[in-house]
Here is the input.
Amino acid sequence: MEKNPRAHEHKLVAWLDTVKTDAEAIFMVGDMFDFWYEYQTVVPKGYVRFLGKMAELVDSGIEIHFFTGNHDIWTFGYLENEVGITVHRQAQTMTLGSKRFFITHGDEVSCDNNFRRKIFHSPFFQRLFQLVPPRIGQNFGFAWSKRNREKLNPDDTKYKGEQNEPLIIFAKKYFENYPDVDFAVFGHRHIQLDLQVQNQKRVVMLGDFVKLFSYGVFDGENFWLENFELNRVNIQIHPKRLEFRVGEQMICELAKNLFCLLCRSVKFDFQQNVLYVHILNARN
Ligand SMILES: [Mn+2]
Here is the structure.
């Protein structure tokens, strides 16, 4: 992980600069922000280069699809209206090129606290939180996010095998119910995995942009994972620009999961998914 959050943000922006030349669309599969809660007329401090770069790409005609994760649920129009990206709050199945994709962050499948998840997603509680002054609300959010990270056992981020990974169990069940889907793509798990299961279908975990700097590329026919190295591209950042003056916690976990689509002839066909029914199936 980049120790300096500003350097981390620059690396993400540098990646966006390298893919903007041939990306038709970019999918960000959740938890792009460590904690994002947007008030009616006030948005969180920080992230300005990242938000600006997304706006630049959108203005140039690249579609950016942003799936909410479990850390950045609370966006209420700013990202759509100001930055111009498309926000997905639920899993999507879509046809891209010649393939059919199921894409979701994945916390809804492997969540260990459904009660908390219900509260976090409840419009009533989301509105109630608007009454909490930002100074308290933001500090609460960052502290929650930090505690989550600290609670994480190093073994939790290790691959537990095909039989024990909830997302793989879920995906296999999903493929049975939706045989036309070719790829199930997830974030959340921080593992870089491309696993072929039954009938040539593949479960892909995108890894992250914190330690692995991994992302997926789809050219309309083939899908593969890559890792981004800053020194591979000739982008120089002046040391002065790496000085960081905002609260360090604000962007230290910026950009966890990315899925970049690099194809110029892809037709989009979005459909809302009946995900929750099948989560129950997967658990049984
Ligand atoms: Mn997550």
